[in-house]
Automatic annotation (TrEMBL), chain A:
GO biological process: exonucleolytic trimming to generate mature 3'-end of 5.8S rRNA from tricistronic rRNA transcript (SSU-rRNA, 5.8S rRNA, LSU-rRNA); nuclear mRNA surveillance; nuclear polyadenylation-dependent rRNA catabolic process; rRNA catabolic process; TRAMP-dependent tRNA surveillance pathway; U1 snRNA 3'-end processing; U4 snRNA 3'-end processing; U5 snRNA 3'-end processing
One GO CC term, this protein: cytoplasmic exosome (RNase complex)
Keyword Nucleotide-binding: no
First-listed, main subcellular location of the protein, grouped into a coarse class: cytoplasm
Name used for this protein in its record: Ribosomal RNA-processing protein 42
Molecular-function annotations in GO: mRNA 3'-UTR AU-rich region binding
Family in the record: Belongs to the RNase PH family.
Cell compartment(s), UniProt: Cytoplasm; Nucleus, Nucleolus
UniProtKB/TrEMBL annotation, chain B:
Organism: Letharia lupina
Domain of life: Eukaryota
Molecular function (Gene Ontology), one example: RNA binding
InterPro entries cross-referenced by the UniProt entry: Exosome_cplx_N_dom (IPR025721), Exosome_RNA_bind1/RRP40/RRP4 (IPR026699), KH_dom_type_1_sf (IPR036612), NA-bd_OB-fold (IPR012340), S1_RRP4 (IPR048565)
Coiled coil: none
Domain Exosome complex component N-terminal: start-end pairs: 47-83
Keyword field: Exosome, Nucleus, RNA-binding, rRNA processing
Subcellular location: Nucleus
Listed CDD domains: S1_Rrp4
Record GO biological process: CUT catabolic process; exonucleolytic trimming to generate mature 3'-end of 5.8S rRNA from tricistronic rRNA transcript (SSU-rRNA, 5.8S rRNA, LSU-rRNA); nuclear mRNA surveillance; nuclear polyadenylation-dependent rRNA catabolic process; poly(A)-dependent snoRNA 3'-end processing; TRAMP-dependent tRNA surveillance pathway; U4 snRNA 3'-end processing
KW RNA-binding (keyword) present: yes
GO cellular component assignments: cytoplasmic exosome (RNase complex); nuclear exosome (RNase complex)
Protein name: Exosome complex component N-terminal domain-containing protein
Family listed: Belongs to the RRP4 family.
From TrEMBL, chain C:
Protein name per Swiss-Prot or TrEMBL: Exoribonuclease phosphorolytic domain-containing protein
Pfam families, sorted: RNase_PH
The species this protein was found in: Letharia lupina
InterPro entries in UniProt: ExoRNase_PH_dom1, PNPase/RNase_PH_dom_sf, Ribosomal_Su5_D2-typ_SF, RNase_PH
UniProt keyword annotations, A-Z: Cytoplasm, Exosome, Nucleus, RNA-binding, rRNA processing
GO terms, molecular function: RNA binding
Tree of life domain: Eukaryota
Alphabetized Gene3D superfamilies for the sequence: GHMP Kinase, N-terminal domain
């Protein structure tokens, strides 16, 4: 689902595309390819939510995310029971062994995808609009791919937290708002606090009503009081999704609306903090996004059958959206730049971590 | 500083010492307005809110932004803004408003719809403007009547998304503008980038009506000549200067041969509605990017955008480049954040120095 | 409000009957992959099955495990069956704005009986998401400017979809529902079948796009390995999977969807070291293999068309 095609004139598109494919590329606002426009953010602004954040991009797009947590009984326990018995009867030795391992991991169980619910609200869009659905799905996909968040929601064998992440886009969606929503979610999750339990292991959960005693969902230093796991050197972080575009051989981050309009390929890359240091980031999900350039009028300059369809860039001074897909080489580079140690992903995570 | 997040800035202080560049509010200083009974005495820069009684003295005439009650001579405000007195006419300039077209305005617009005999052009005004087919220079000479062939080929002149510079020829009863491009100054825009800032009518930063809306900049760093077109409606076009005139195609080579009617025809015929860009050097592209960065910084800093300010900011940014290099700032030429503010401060200082 | 006119079943739902197998536990243990890591399931692809549509195709993947185990109800291996119809190019509605090129719209619908758990006709998030993926995969292939002011609809119905877990595994409440990894092979199938149907409709394409899936899979004894065309129920746990839409002659990727789960990575750090690029390359292999089937299917149906047209229109026979 692509954002609505940006109406740009053919000569603008041509100018942008040529500027961006130069070596070094010239972005319309003279940024370097990997630099981000300054962001404005604040966290913990909604008193009624467990965690919240507001983030403004330089182009005026702005979003608020609120995280609310509810206690819920683990679903399907009764229904699943008979599988468990069957497994046991069938001598699923491996299974039980593995369960044991996972139990030992945090003294807790494994979370489920559906414990996290993401909704996105965009002004002027129906909530079953393809774009809204797609965005919510992508953010959800990123969050659940990192098992860390799901597993944090386990209270005990019978109870778990259910997280509702509601993201409100305040401005009309000029650019593809995915990175904005993802970064806002990240900050909101970092500021999320859950009440401290005062009940024992498998009892029905009771919580301390003192908000000061609540514990952050993502502790700044990831040491669990009862954990047998070795303390991780880098604290865990929610994953983030970056939008990467390529024009020619060049790769750009934080693309503006105009840059997106001439992108040859658009990629949403979800990265998570590494579980061990110095390995670069964890690549959690990658997906291609339909570049809006294909929808623009300039993609249809040549209408005659048999005309050359794929002259790269067309005549000089005229740009035509390319057909086909992206080269594997470019794809690998785009992903690499997000993931590698000291790369853009690390920088963004670092910046977000420092802020919160 | 490729990735920075800042806290939201506190509200700017209410009475910041804005430079005295705003048009004089009381062009008729000797007439003292009787202070309305319900309000304390107002300063010359009084701010009124809708429904507020501006005056009940019947000697005043009501202008824009006011209304009267049929039974009383009171003049009430209908918008929030500053009071403007012109002789006996009271009008109120809203603090922020969309552009309202006026006859003779030089505007930059974008075609959003093509109809059989006219184009609908977006001017960021409340209504779309019309550009009739009869109001453009048709190929083959300006003195030709439009024919049905032209109607069929309407999309070859302007298509959806195309940018044009035009003049407001008349304003309809409902406030919609009718444009014309029947001059070589006007027509299709090529070879550059587009910017959108708030236009005249708004307070704060934006384009203001001024003596020169179009001028050529001799840029630094070997960028050559660059044209700047400030549309009164807040749309700005910055492009490479081609030949002797803004709108010129292949006819540019003959520009020295004088501007006869025959010559004119040739130009109009060949290059007027071309979508192809000239070849633009890298240096020029950098300087265009810098100029657009300056305009953006000016708008962010809440300054007016006119020839003087843009030129001062441009000079400041050229000088600032050296400074930035010494400090080892990253991010290329990007004029955002702190660097943009610095440039705007410098520009304002230079403007003041020039005035004194 | 209960319906008093009919006898209702008990509230709260019932568990379906489960027949405890009298077979030995070995036969009902979770299905194991019998194919080689780089061996794909057999694909059946045929175009032109829906005469009323301008183009159509049917796609089927054989069940991954032979039917020997089907004596037990719970362990019937799922297959993948898709039908695709293409309507158009047809004129856009009058209200639609001018479009200089072909407008593509995609819809993917799961039949209510596609999975073990019935699903209603209400479109859900997963279907829309898949449709968006499919649109991305196809848009780069169509030469849209040859069809200005018109649109095509690509509609895919999933008749039978794969499930994440085989029925008797049931680790979580998610079983019996397609989603997660199963979606990825469905998408791959959708890309291939849509490509076939579009070509059947005679719409200009720059190349054939085919889908391919590869996954990194946990193995009981060996280190994780990349498998082509994984069937989620065959494998104990999938670490990462990648779907691509691939254009072989241009060596380009129109669609890429990679997901990875690092849930189990703490006990097996090797999964993290699995590189992204090899996974993509393996998925490309799978797509290349699917392309052979696609070409074969297209040739077959084109030959049939040519023959019938020869008999019908003697003029065409000469050319």
């Amino acid at each position: 689902m692509a954002p609505p095609p940006t109406p740009l004139s053919p000569s603008e598109l041509s100018y942008l595309h040529t500027s961006l494919s130069l070596h070094p590329p010239i972005r319309p606002d003279a940024r370097s390819p990997t630099s981000f426009r300054p962001l404005v953010a604040e966290t913990d602004l909604l008193p009624a939510a467990n965690g919240s954040a507001r983030l403004c991009f330089a182009d005026g797009t702005e979003a608020i995310a609120g995280v609310k947590a509810e206690v819920e009984k683990v679903q399907g326990l009764g229904n699943v029971r008979w599988y468990d018995n069957m497994d046991a009867e069938m001598g699923g030795i491996e299974e039980s062994e593995r369960d044991g391992e996972q139990e030992g991991e945090r003294g807790k169980g494994v979370g489920e995808d559906k414990w996290i619910e993401v909704t996105v609200d965009m002004p002027g869009q129906r909530d079953d609009d393809a774009m809204v659905v797609f965005l919510a799905q992508m953010i959800h996909e990123g969050l659940v791919a990192d098992g860390g968040l799901k597993n944090r929601l386990v209270i005990n064998a019978r109870w778990h937290w259910r997280l509702y992440i509601d993201i409100l886009l305040l401005s009309p969606p000029h650019t593809y708002p995915l990175p904005l929503l993802s970064l806002t979610t990240h900050l909101a999750l970092l500021s999320t606090r859950l009440p401290a339990p005062i009940s024992n292991h498998d009892e029905d959960p009771l919580f301390n009503d003192d908000w000061d005693a609540s514990s952050p969902l993502y502790p700044s230093s990831d040491t669990y009081p009862d954990a047998k796991t070795p303390p991780q050197s880098s604290p865990a972080r929610p994953p983030i999704t970056l939008l990467v575009i390529s024009v020619g051989d060049n790769v750009f981050f934080d693309a503006s609306r105009e840059e997106l309009a001439v992108a040859d390929a658009v990629l949403a890359v979800t990265v998570g903090a590494p579980s061990s240091p110095s390995t670069g980031l964890n690549l959690l999900a990658v997906r291609t996004i339909d570049p809006p350039s294909r929808l623009s009028a300039s993609a249809a300059e040549v209408g005659r059958a048999g005309a050359e369809i794929d002259a790269e860039g067309g005549k000089e001074g005229v740009w035509k959206a390319s057909k086909g897909g992206m080269k594997r080489r470019v794809l690998a580079r785009m992903v690499q730049m997000c993931v590698e140690g000291g790369g853009v992903g690390e920088e963004v995570l670092g910046g977000l971590g420092e802020f919160s | 500083m490729p990735f920075t997040i800042t806290l939201p800035a506190p509200l700017s202080p209410l009475h910041h010492n804005e430079p005295s560049d705003s048009p004089s509010l009381d062009s008729d200083g000797d007439t003292d307005m009787p202070p309305p009974s319900k309000r304390p005495k107002l300063s010359t820069r009084s701010i009124v809110t809708p429904g507020e009684t501006v005056t009940d003295d019947p000697q005043w005439m009501r202008g824009h932004g006011t209304y009267t009650h049929p039974t009383s001579p009171q003049i009430l405000s209908s918008v929030a803004g500053t009071l403007l007195k012109t002789n006996k006419l009271l009008s109120i300039r809203p603090l922020r408003a969309r552009y309202t077209p006026e006859i003779g305005d030089l505007v930059v617009g974008r075609v959003v719809e093509v109809q059989t005999k006219r184009w609908k052009v977006d001017l960021s005004a409340p209504l779309l403007a019309h550009l009739p087919l009869s109001a453009i220079n048709l190929p083959g000479g300006i003195l030709r009547k439009r024919t049905s062939t032209d109607e069929l080929a309407i999309r070859t002149f302007f298509g959806e998304g195309d940018l044009l510079v035009a003049e407001v020829q008349s304003v309809y009863q409902d406030g919609a503008a009718s444009l014309h491009t029947r001059s070589l100054k006007y027509g299709k825009l090529r070879n550059g980038v587009f910017l959108s800032v708030s236009g005249t009518g708004g307070g704060g930063g934006g384009v203001v009506r001024s003596r020169r809306q179009v001028w050529t900049v001799q840029t630094a760093n070997g960028g050559g000549e660059v044209d700047v077109v400030l549309g009164v409606n807040g749309y700005i076009w910055i492009c490479k200067h081609v030949g002797g005139e803004l709108v010129e195609g292949k006819g540019g080579r003959h520009a020295g041969a004088g501007m006869g009617v025959n010559n004119l025809e040739e130009k109009v015929g060949e290059g007027m509605y071309e979508n192809r860009n000239e070849s633009i050097g890298e240096e020029t592209r950098w300087e265009i990017a810098r100029l657009s960065g300056c305009v953006r910084a000016l708008v962010e800093g809440g300054c007016r955008v006119d020839e003087e300010m843009v030129m001062r900011a441009y000079e400041a940014s050229v000088e600032d480049e050296g400074v930035g290099g010494e400090e080892g700032e990253e991010g290329g030429e990007y004029l955002g954040g702190e660097r943009g503010r610095r440039v705007v401060r410098e520009a304002l200082r230079a403007v003041h120095a020039a005035r004194e | 409000m209960t319906d008093r006119r009919r006898i209702n079943g008990p509230l709260g739902g019932t568990a379906p009957p489960v027949f405890v197998s009298s077979l030995t536990s070995k036969t009902t243990s979770p299905a194991k992959r019998t194919r080689a890591p780089d061996e794909l399931r057999k694909i059946f692809l045929k175009t032109g099955l829906t005469p009323s549509a301008s183009g159509s195709a049917y796609f089927e993947l054989e069940p991954s495990t032979p039917t020997a185990a089907s004596e037990c109800l719970a362990s019937k291996a799922p297959a993948l069956k898709l039908t695709c119809t293409v309507h158009g190019p047809r004129p856009l509605p009058r209200s639609a704005p001018f479009s200089p090129q072909l407008l593509l719209s995609t819809r993917i619908k799961f039949a209510p009986f596609a999975a073990r758990q019935r699903r209603g006709y209400i479109p859900n998030v997963g279907e829309r998401d898949l449709a968006a993926h499919l649109e991305t995969a196809l848009r780069g292939v169509l030469i849209g400017e040859r069809w200005p002011k018109s649109g095509i609809d690509v509609v895919i119905t999933v008749l039978e979809g794969e499930e994440d877990n085989s029925w008797n595994k049931g680790q979580s409440g998610e079983s019996g529902r397609t989603g997660g990894w199963g979606m990825m092979s469905i998408l791959s199938g959708c890309i291939t079948v849509a490509s076939a149907a579009i070509i059947d409709a005679g719409i200009d394409c720059i190349d054939l796009v085919t889908g391919g899936v590869a996954a990194v899979v946990r193995q009981p004894t060996a280190p994780p390995q990349v498998f082509l065309d994984p069937c989620p129920s065959d494998h104990e746990e999938i670490f990462a999977a990648c779907v691509i839409g691939y254009l072989q002659t241009r060596d380009e990727i129109t669609e890429l969807w990679t997901k990875r789960s690092i849930m189990a990575s703490t006990d097996d750090n090797r999964a993290n070291t699995m590189e992204f690029e090899p996974l993509v390359d393996q998925a490309v292999e799978a797509a290349v293999a699917a392309r052979l089937v696609l070409i074969e299917a297209i040739k077959e149906s084109t030959e049939v068309k040519v023959q019938t047209s020869q008999f019908g229109h003697p003029k065409n026979a000469a050319s």
